[in-house]
Amino acid sequence: MRVLSGEVIDTVLRSLYVSGVATMLSLTWSVPASYILALRQRTGLVEALLETLVGMPTVLLGLLLYFLFSSSGPLAPLRLLYTPQAMIVGEAILVTPLIISTSHRLLRNAITTYSELALSLGAGRDQAMTLILRETSPGIIASAVMGFSRAVGELGIAMMVGGNISGYTRVATTAIALGVSRGEFEEALVLGLMLLAIMLVVAVALKSLSRVYVKW
Amino acid sequence: MVNIGLKDVWYRYTGSSSWSLKGVSIIIQNGETVLVTGHNGSGKTTMLKIASLIYRPSSGAVLVDGKDFWVLRESERTSVRRSIVYVHEKPVLLRGSVLSNVAYGLAIRGVSSGEAVKKCREVLEELGIWELHRSSPHKLSAGQAQLMAVARALVLDPEALFLDEPFAHLDSEKREILVNTLIGRQRQGVSIVISSHQVGYLGKLSVNKTVTLENGVVMRAREKREKGESNS
Questions:
Q1: CA angle, corner B58, sides to B55 and B61, nearest 5?
Q2: pLDDT in tens, B111-141
Q3: Alpha helix ranges (H) inside chain B
Q4: Which of B14, B74, B78 best tests the A interface by mutation, with the highest count of A CBs <10 A?
């Protein structure tokens, strides 16, 4: 079947790779940032800013990154434009407000409850923090899945800083856009459905993983 | 053994304009059992959380064996906290099984899993809930969850045990089990501080001191309540 060619599979796998790495990269700063935000009082302004950034048009972020990475931009020496790395950086930035705004709320509730419990049972500060993160991990994983879905489904960044180069930076969304512009609707539809199915599997797998707990 | 003293303790919750505790001073001696009574909102829970070294007072001092706890270094505080355990009125349930919940305090102390299971089994059997050890704590009744929270504290062999409304969710049978367990700990010299507005639940438990709070102020501190004395 032509629509399930090696190129299609390659494109889907690249989508998963770019978005997966971008989500994991974002988690490295989003979780600590969420924790710090959850510890603070009077965060209304920061929360409003984050919620605004959640809905930021991806083409706008793509354009800003294009300016940064282009040959006349300040990050030109990094030679990231039209590379998967540029897409990873862009998507990591894109999903950061989403992950922080969903994680910090559950961490805020958890910090009060679990830090009191941890202290009452003689835990140190690090042990209390570990307990909080352990108990909130299903929620944080759910935030990560949302971030991943957002990254996989975005088009603007992939197009502007990836450039939709076949076999290199072409991902599912850019391939779908290209297919539609060429009138190859069948291939575009198959790509979209494949991506959706894989995202569903990933979400279910992560949800199941978050329930795994070592029992005595 | 441990002596705990509150010296002119004031406490105000973040964002609140009113004081929850106003100049509270009490002493909990080694092996003493103290009953803290008062209406809802009188400051019982706040006082227990301060005395059990969870909350830092807004002003005043918490003395543990004569030392001001809150001027100690973080590592010293953790070490002191390990002899004092507080049980929440509403049990905090962790993921995992009842056994892993009860063993949490032992795990953070580095106790081996074999030893921890043995200790947990002893205490869960004493409280009559060993058969639930593989269950999810989220599937327990309120009374069973309360006993699990007490077990989580008792496995640590604390020198001072703070119980916030421990009988609130218990039926008469479980209440009796808990009272007998606490009597056993009294005999071992454990200091016990119980907050309750239902003093009738204490049954055979003898109390050395009763502190009555009202609007964050100690209204009455009465020494010695003999066994079997009328509570109502």
A1: 80
A2: 999 999 999 999 999 999 999 999 999 999 9
A3: 44-51, 74-81, 98-102, 104-108, 113-126, 142-154, 172-187
A4: B78
- Give CA–CA dist A51/A56, Å, rounded: 9
Judge whether B94 is closer than 8 Å to chain A, CB to CB: yes
A114 CB neighbours in chain B (<8 A) are: 92, 94
> What tens digit of pLDDT does each residue of B144-160 get?
999 999 999 999 999 99
Distance in angstroms (rounded) separating the CA atoms of residues A26 and A42: 24
Domains of chain A: 13-164 (1.10.3720.10)
**A21-55 confidence digits (pLDDT tens):** 999 999 999 999 999 999 998 889 999 999 999 99
- State the angle between helix axes of A84-120 and A6-39 in degrees (0 to 180), rounded to the nearest 10: 40
Cα A81-A85-A91 angle, rounded to 5 deg: 100
How long a stretch of residues is chain B? 232
Domain boundaries, chain B: 1-83+160-169+195-232
The answer to whether the CB atoms of B96 and A213 lie below 8 A apart is yes
Contacts of A131 in chain B (CB under 8 A): 94, 104
Packing angle between helix A58-69 and helix A84-120, nearest 10 degrees?
110
Q: Under CATH, what is the fold of the domain B1-83+160-169+195-232?
A: Rossmann fold (3.40.50)
DSSP states along B81-93:
HTTEEEE-SSPPP
In this prediction the ipTM stands at: 0.89
Q: Does A124 touch chain B if contact means CB atoms closer than 8 Å?
A: yes
Output the DSSP codes for A1-61.
Answer: -GGG-HHHHHHHHHHHHHHHHHHHHHHHHHHHHHHHHHH-S--HHHHHHHHHHHT--HHHH
Q: What residues of B are in contact with residue A118 (Cβ under 8 Å)? A: 108
The pairing of strands B67-68 and B59-64 is antiparallel
| Residue/partner pairs of A21-25 with CB below 8 Å, 24 or more apart | A21/A88, A22/A87, A22/A88, A22/A89, A22/A90, A22/A91, A22/A92, A22/A94, A22/A95, A22/A151, A23/A91, A23/A92, A23/A95, A23/A99, A23/A144, A23/A147, A23/A148, A23/A151, A25/A88, A25/A89, A25/A92
Cβ contacts (< 8 Å) between B133 and chain A: which residues? 216
CA-to-CA dists, residue B150 to A72, A113, B60, B117, angstroms: 66, 17, 29, 16
